[in-house]
Specification:
single chain, mainly alpha
Length: 265
Amino acid sequence: MFNGFNPKHLQPPRLSLRFVPVWQRNFLVWRKLAIPSMLGNLADPMLYMLALGFGLGSLLPTVEGVSYITFLAAGTVCYGTMNSATFEALYSGFSRMHVQRTWDAILNAPITLDDVVTAEAVWAASKSFLSGMAILAVIWLLGLSHSPLTLWIVLLVPLIGLTFACLGLTVTALSPSYDFFLYYFTLIITPMVLLCGVFFPVSQLPPVLQHVAQFLPLFHAIELVRPLVVGRAPAQPLIHVLVLLGYAAVGFYLALVLTRRRLLK
């Protein structure tokens, strides 16, 4: 048996609708700071898209048959969604779990830790949905895509957000402090952004790195979203969706097991 684990920690998730009040609690708190929170999550990906898209894009002819800003916009939807879900699951989740002890207070009610972790994952996905939709709205307003296929992105963004929320909660369960998150961003998130085709086609990478990229969840998110932005159906959409669902399911179970080990003595 792994160090610090007991059989109760490894039990399957016990899902119920009792996570809804916890999600609602997070929403009511967030509503007071909604505008600065949204601006904080949107500024970084939006600036990258507009600055690189118009600046660098003016120096390039086309990328994969479309303007560079259109190419970049599709990656930015996924990148922005990933960032928003990750920040919420890491920094806000850690604050509620460790610093403010909000989870301890919630557990005094007839709510299990499984409900709390489920609520945190769904809440982070919900916040990232707003970020993804805001970037998609900018794409529509700037006329970067007129394809009705972009409406499918509305359904894909929650899945992308949930995937990275579950992965982020796994890191949160392991973290002794906020500084620990720098490892995740430096060693996982940043390389994934550079490898998975946000800023340039994956085909420009050496073959070995192209193979590495295909194992990463952001690659599959972009493979779904980019064709829709340029007006094409994605190739092998079921495989990409299943990979994202797999990452979300494994990430959620790991987050739950690690959080049980941390909080349930």
